[in-house]
Amino acid sequence: MRRPSFSFLMVAFFSLFIVACGGGATQQPTAPPVATQPQGVEETEPPATGGYQGGAVTDGGTIAGKITYSGAPVEPEVVEVDKDTEVCGTSLEVAKVQTDEAGGLANAVVRITDIASGKPLDSLGSEFVLDQMGCQYVPAVVIVPVGAALTVLNSDGILHNIHTTPFDNPPLNVAQPATQPEIMSDVFSIPEIIPVGCDVHKWMNAHIVVVDQPYAAVTGSDGSFALSDVPPGAYTVEIWHAELGTQTETVTVEAGAEAPVEVDFP
Amino acid sequence: MIGVAVIVIVMAIAAAMTLAAAPVQLPRSGDLGDRGIGVLAAPVRLPRSGDLGYPRSGVPAYIFSVPAQQLELGQAIYAQRCEICHGVEGDGNGPAASNMDPRPRDFRRGWYKIRTTTSGQLPTDEDLLLVITKGMPGTTMPGWQGVLAQAEIQAVVEYIKTFSARFERETPAVVEVGPKFEADEESVARGSEIFLGAEAECIKCHGAAGRGDGPSAAELTEDFFGDVIVPADLTMPWLFRGGPTADDIYMRLKTGLTGSPMPSYAEVLSDEDLWHLANYADSLGADNPPELEPAILATRAPGAIPDDPRAEVWQEAEEYYYPLVGQIMREPRNYTPSIAGVWVRALYDDSEIVLLLKWHDRFNDSGDGEAPTDGFAVQFPAELAEGDERPYFVFGEPARPVNLWQWSAATNIVEERTARGAGTDIAQATQNVEGQASFNEGEYTLLIRRELKTNDGEDIQFELGQFVPIAFIAWDGWRDEQPVSGAISSWFLIYLDKPVPATAYAWIPVTILAVALIEAGILWAVRRGTRREEQAS
After folding, report:
1. Rounded to a whole number, what is the distance in Å from the CA of B75 to chain A's nearest CA?
2. Which of A262, B42, B234, B264 has fewest C-beta within 10 Å?
3. Residue B164 and residue B62: Cα distance in Å, rounded?
4. What is the CA radius of gyration of chain B?
């Protein structure tokens, strides 16, 4: 019988070495196959925005009324503050659903969703302001027409950041330290409701309601609102609240008269 | 003759086996052709503008002004390379997405972190191209350079843009880069002033030491999409998504990181101050991680080893860095580990070995009742095996147990445990280690002592001049990391430096002689083997 030759031993030795080294190499996980479903080109939709015609309204009526909340009371969120306590306080209440004794719901947005012409868009005003006071936004809901910028004030004198999370408009996230009491936002070009928050004080939140027609209002502390100079006709009115969602109401406006809208959440 | 043949055979076998053992090869860009054809024939799928779960204003779908062929190529590559993470709909919800931290980008909103455009603006094509080409450090996004050709990446860029209608409407505004200020002492000092002071209050999130542990950090537990998001640890710039240099940091300060809490400071600070701030942030950490050394050299301390890590002997000891990864071998797995790595120093004296460990953790979770707590463990084999055999690095195995020197923030003591597999660890009957940790501004410092030799049969014993396998495990209580699902390293080595006796130098000529003799012996053996084979034939 032949003894294993030296050359065979060499081969065996090298093989072992290679196996040892190769075994150390990490195996990359292979991706499971992803099925690709060919799909047809989807139909393009006509633009839903724009096209509102502003002008003089002489025989307009008013949509006015009160938005109420009759559900179980929603306790405000109590935040224990552990920073900037000299400005924010040590504890503060963040109202989720703010009502008065009569159930009037504050900070709901009432707007007409199907109006093609009426009073000019700039009748909403020319200055739109969101302030940061005591580590809360004032107001909690601000209406801004398309094409207008929002002035963001920092009355607190500490660092906040204005962080918006829109879908259609460009988002914004800018620092606003004490040295910067006033910042102008970019112009909004597409109507949508945009959440605003501060990452330094996570409890802070507000909403910017971008509109392309001027018939929009935020309810006051008693839940009341009024949309004036509405051309006579039948309209859909949408009532939106950040926590309670959306309801719609159909309203017919007559010249010089008040068309009441009373909506109760939930 | 046969000698040459042997070498050829060995090389051939070696080549074959190397190929067999090589990791899965990524397909080259040329491979796309065949597989792409079926997909290319399909019509381009544009994103739907249906209900996405938030107020929408009915933005129309639209047709892009790029050549259809390019979009088709982009779609084909996207389907092959990107969909697994970013999803068919571009929503960042691909089949692999749930195990990723940070999550893959949701393309539908046009929110991109790494850009050269002003706050909230869309990225430029070049921005997207660069991220796809280079990848994003500290995330699962790989760079596709060398895999995809430039034209293919460009096609993917065009396709990705179809997921958000904003690309059709908006033209991004590129920021203006102000003249650069060099990172001299003055610039860094001014940067520090801005970082800490009211002008920017960076410390609110990033903390005074820059470890991402500021007072607001604890609130940033979730981003807009509900995913965990934490302020960057500025002392580890090699994990920065957009690159580690002062230029990169300047750009991030200017643009902000859209979709994250990091805002833009473009309108708040002057260009000069932005450079100072970038220079200061850049000074907090090195661009690259410390080089990975296979072995920790424990040196002999001149006297008693102090507890105080600031002591001179500790300051002079060599520091080693070992990255940690999520433990994904055993249930429960951790795909999103919190602790990125550990810094280690080791000293020994006549009687004991002492380890000094440092790691970054944003919060000190020492536990109240049921809350998970922070922890750390150093792992050794329970005994050294013959050769180089080691226990399984994930808590050992039944036949080959491991020692764990395990510290818990709940008790702030180090306990000796023995494990024979994940979840089997139990405290040893005889405790021989002691240790204590301190927590300061997002950094733990843990000092562990043990006698070099113990009388405990369950313990690893340390000899001078011997390599001992060592591994590390870290747990972050805040991230609910439990005994098995921590961040873990593979085996490295620790070596207790043996002082060289003077006689060692005499051995040098002896060694040379011995090597020569062995070589002669091998030569002789080969020749004899060759002769025998010749005789046999």
Report:
1. 10
2. A262
3. 10
4. 29
Q: List, in sequence order, every beta strand (DSSP E) within chain A.
A: 53-54, 61-69, 77-80, 91-94, 109-112, 117-118, 129-133, 136-138, 141-145, 151-154, 160-164, 172-176, 182-184, 192-197, 205-211, 216-218, 224-230, 233-241, 245-253, 258-265
B60, B120, B199: residue with CB nearest A46: B60
Per-residue pLDDT of chain B (537 residues; tens, 9 = 90+): 454 444 445 444 444 444 334 333 333 333 333 333 333 333 333 333 333 332 223 333 344 567 888 999 999 999 999 999 999 999 999 999 988 888 899 999 999 999 999 999 999 999 999 999 999 988 899 999 999 999 999 999 999 999 999 999 899 999 999 999 999 999 999 999 999 999 999 999 999 999 999 999 988 877 777 777 889 999 999 999 999 999 999 999 999 999 899 999 999 999 999 999 999 999 999 999 999 999 999 999 998 999 999 999 999 999 999 999 999 899 898 888 899 999 999 999 999 999 999 999 999 998 776 778 999 999 999 999 888 889 999 999 999 999 999 999 999 999 999 999 999 999 999 999 999 999 999 999 999 999 999 999 999 999 999 999 999 999 999 888 888 999 999 999 999 988 777 777 888 888 899 999 999 999 999 998 888 888 877
* Residues within 8 A of A (CB atoms), B 6-35 only: 6, 9-10, 13-14, 17-18, 20-24, 26
CB contact under 8 A, B24 and A36: no
CB contact under 8 A, A179 and B198: yes
